[in-house]
Amino acid sequence: MNDYNFNMKEFLPFWDDLKSECQNTILKELKHKTYKKGETVHDNSVTCTGLIFILSGKLRAYMISENGRELSLYYLMDNDICLMSASCVMKDITFDIFIEAMEDTKVAILPTHIYKDIANNYIEMSKYVNSIMSSRLSDVMWILEQVLFKKFDSRLAEFLLFHRDENDKIKMTHEEIANHLGSAREVVSRMLKHFESNDIIKLFRGGIEILNEDELIKLSD
Predict the structure, then answer these.
(1) Domain hosting residue 177, numbered range
(2) pTM over 0.70
(3) Which residues lie closer than 8 Å to 155 by C-beta, 6 or more apart?
(4) Is 90 in a helix, a strand, or coil?
(5) Does pLDDT of 214 surpass 60?
(6) Is 185 exposed, middle or buried (0-12, 13-18, 19+ CB in 10 A)?
(7) Is 195 within the bounds of a domain?
(8) Mean pLDDT of 148-154
């Protein structure tokens, strides 16, 4: 365990295979930070924040179209690693991805130059990063499949089920939901009103409450 009270093996399975000198360098260079809900973690103005280890909380990776419409690509939670914040070392990535905190999120950041040194000296690091990139690509392809081939009511139902809290509530505005789904606020509001008229959900100021989980699950299939 290190001073921040988390186990690096949870993030780097090959941790024990690294030389003690390398381990000490990583622990020494890690930067600890807390992002507040809604705060930007990474955007196109900063190409190399570094590798971000999510200790607790939730991050959203998304793209923005030319007309300003957002589309969520994937979500990162406890024990995930954010690679796109170190995109400058990945030469084939030529598009902009934005990352924001969906809730207060504690992270540890490994500076890019330290990551590059480790990747150059330990093939395990390169292999592991490649496996994470493959997983993220699968997430993005799944999102594109949903956008292209799935009806919007089904996508919205699935979104509500995924983002509900322990009280079956989703504390987001219609605009925020639209940003996640790459849609317009008016479309989201219209569909939510339809759900409410069928007693599937209840709308309240700043959020939504799920009333009929079974029906929402049917819609999401």
Answers:
(1) 150-220
(2) yes
(3) 146, 147, 181
(4) coil
(5) yes
(6) middle
(7) yes
(8) 87
| Side-by-side strand order, sheet with 31-35 | 31-35, 105-110, 51-56, 81-82
* pLDDT band with cut points at 50, 70 and 90 for residue 3: very low
35 and 138 in a single domain? The answer is yes
In a domain, 25, yes or no: yes
Q: Is residue 3 part of a domain?
A: no
68 neighbors 110 (Cβ within 8 angstroms): no
Gap between the terminal Cα atoms of the chain: 42
Q: What's the number of domains the chain is made of?
A: 2
Q: Which two tokens stand for residue 76?
A: 């990162």
Cα 205 from Cα 221, distance rounded (Å): 28
Residues belonging to the chain: 221
User: What pLDDT does 100 receive?
Assistant: 93
> With 70 as the cut, is the pLDDT of residue 171 above it?
yes
Please check whether residues 138 and 154 belong to one and the same domain.
Answer: no
Task: Show which of 93, 117, 148 is a domain's final residue.
Answer: 148
Query: DSSP H helical segments within the chain, as ranges?
Result: 20-29, 112-121, 123-149, 152-163, 174-181, 185-197, 213-220
Determine the average pLDDT of the residues in 6-14. Answer: 88
CATH number, residue 46: 2.60.120.10
List all residues 6 or more positions away from 113 whose beta carbon is below 8 Å from its beta carbon.
none
**CATH code of 188's domain:** 1.10.10.10
pLDDT at 76 over 70: yes
